[in-house]
Protein 1
Amino acid sequence: MKFIDEATITVQSGNGGRGCVSFRRERFIPKGGPNGGDGGNGGNVILKASPRKRTLYQFRFKRLFRAENGRGGEGSQRTGRNGGDIVLEIPPGTLVSDAETGELLRDFTVVGETFVIASGGRGGLGNVRFKSSTNRTPRYAQPGEPGQTRTLKMELKLLADVGLMGFPNAGKSTLISVISSARPKIADYPFTTLTPNLGVVQTDWGEPFAVADIPGLIEGAHTGAGLGIQFLRHIERTRVLVHLIDATEIDPDAPLSRYKAINTELSRYSEKLAEKSQLVVLNKMDLPGADVAAELFQMAAGNMEFMTISAATGQGIQALKARIVQLLDQLNEE
């Protein structure tokens, strides 16, 4: 299934049913009073954050959703049936805004959360409602109120505690497959990851936490280069960023160049994202030359905290998980 994280749809709530003009007609009662019932209310359009949905794929082809209209009122003061609601399930983390004005209508961050995005029209009143001492036989009733039509823009931002970022082929997919049950595509070439991956990490000493892995970033990503910029929104909600660097790709003449390049792209995309708590991790320490590169990085980094791991062999993985849990606990206490 293709990963769809943006969609624009149109929703229409149901129109209210028309009130009824009717008079009581029975044997021996030739001139009975009015008895027209009210029309039913139109159905609502409801959005619901469902754990069964992971993407906005369902809106890729169908773009118009209508709730049912209310039925008209009937004689003998019978009220018309209300129109049925339509419930659209969306993944948690979806932001819904008005496509015409840009106004944010709802940010669905809680599983099971519901919101009436378009209210159905009210049913019209039947003629029995207009009977009075001066008008004993009203021959009119109200039409039902029209429903609402709205064009909605939906944008999915994955809900995760930790975001993995770095250049292509830094080992992000391997790492998330080692620390969680996620099984992304893994290969030894850049841009193996084409869509975000989400995994849950279980530990023996702390609460589980969710990790999001996005496609690799490259220089110029903030202007649209590469793939990662399309998915940076998915780590905007994270609390900790794990900046993964391929130790074998560290430039001996400028050990911090790759680190600085990614942070430059983050700051140009969003200052708020660039200010998030960041844990630098040197990966692929099992390969030749990685130890020397790590020493050069340490000399250039000064007091910067960083860790060394090998996602392929498992070296340093437990220490990394423990440090992430520690950082999350510290943020919880703040």
Protein 2
Amino acid sequence: MIRTLLLGVILLVWGPLSIAAGSDDESCNVSTLRFSMIPKNNVERQVEGYKSLTELLEQRLQVPVQIIRPTSYNSVVEGVVTGAVDLAVLGPAAYVRAHGMDSRVTAFASLSYAADFFTPRGEYYSSILVANADSPFTDIKRLRGARVAFTDPGSTSGELIPSTQFVKEIGGDLNRFFASRIYAGSHDKAMEALLDRRVDAAFVSSSRADRFLDQGRIDKSSFRVLWRSEPIHFDPFVFGTSLCPSLRKRIAEFMLSGDDQLEPYLGFEGASAIIPVTDDAYTPIAELSQ
């Protein structure tokens, strides 16, 4: 049975795992595989969607999988670095931070998507700045003095890219250009704030905007895209510091196998495939983070 717990609690009580998990690696003592993800949208919806993947991992590995509910981007970074989380989905900037703190946090897989309305490239997405299409904000200049939603301080498209690339468009500091900045907590919440007119514009992931569109929460005429970043490689699946080599190998082999049983999970993500990825894919983000 897949259990779920709050990540902040796990970080407080985590201790070494102690029960062997059917592995040929003598040092691989695992009683439970702990999985978490950055909170890109509604966490309960994410937990339900990832169960199609974690249930398969349970069957293949013969190890119980526990889904750890994230409280923030930073909580997942801390989890994989401290060993409280064994397997996670991180954003590119969150991964760069975690890998920089401990190089044993390694990326091994990512998702590929068919071209979509907001995201034209299969293995890449963009940070986009969107406004309501019926608003007076028709270009970047009109946003001076506006209220803008960001995602999370640890977000790539909802914080790092606007802070390092978009600033070149306005020739100055974000806090001086905008009247107010809020952290919505997730891409979906940022778009909800925009639709509710609580903000005038929002920086979000183009892929999350596509999922919003797929869910019928917006249509193709709802948002006006005022700015788009350079392509960013999609979020990586990463191994935490405490996961042993034999389990890393078995997880990677299964997730990259193209097994038809992965289709329900890919359907949840709206993705076409799980593809291999290495640290090199996130070098541009690492350079921006310096």
Protein 3
Amino acid sequence: MAEPIKVLVTGAAGQIAYSLIYNIAKGDVFGNDQPIILVLLDIAPMMSVLEGVVMEIRDCAFQLVCEIIATDKEEEAFKDIDVAILVGSMPRREGMERKDLLQANAKIFKSQGYSLDKFAKKSVKVLVVGNPANTNCLTAIKCAPSIPKENFSCLTRLDHNRAKAQIAFKLGVPSSDVKNVIIWGNHSSTQYPDVTHATVKVKGKEMSIYDAVKDDNWLKGDFITTVQQRGAAVIKARKLSSAMSAAKAISDHMRTLWFGTAEDEWVSMGVISDGNPYGVPNDLVFSFPVQIKNKTWGIVQCLKISDFSCEKLKVTAKELLEEKETASEFLSSI
């Protein structure tokens, strides 16, 4: 059996982690022959809850979990880790401005970035989930200069999965028959779900989404807004944010990063924008279509971008530039 890998989950006492840890421990993420050292980090007031999570992990008797470390100390949590899944963040509270949220999280991800830089393996793969995920990821990158920028990504696979599911539901096909949707930009209501290059299998025949759906107004209207606002719709219905679907998307993201994409397929992932071919400013964490091989991502090249799509990319890039400026101002003051 392989050597164990050390996997950190932050916000480990929370509802997303409760579903995510099960997926990791069962072998759905890193493979059913990969032993895991689970490292669970949360804040001090949540440690009694985390103790209960640890009890449940032990009671599952997972054959792949060879050690569990539960802590509220970053220096212990980040020590020699192979993977960091940064779920924990300050949630947006009623009456809180987006600027306040950005500032509160800049402090958290500045500290975690420093801990990555100081304690983690330089080969560590970092996934930022806590919102605002793109800008939190950029903050962590800035604060961990000894770790390659390419080792960091943020979660837009949930939006990617939502887009696939909307198309599948519309056409009455399995979501596995929908390929190559794209989420461009920010994990926010400015994101651009794009099916221009996507295909779907209908009655055994693969065709473009536009040809299959035959409703351009829906694809350029309600489809986009439904995906953009899905998180808010879940909160309105559940009175809680997405948890099961978020955990599934994190699992999908990390499994794809670990094992790669098929030759003719891509996934959506928030990555550093430096040198991209789509006119997005450098030094942002921006969601692009990526292909992955040997645990290394590359932005899909040479996709034709329509005027409609170009305008959508500009809107979401503008929001990310504004977020970056707000976070940078606060970081320089602490």
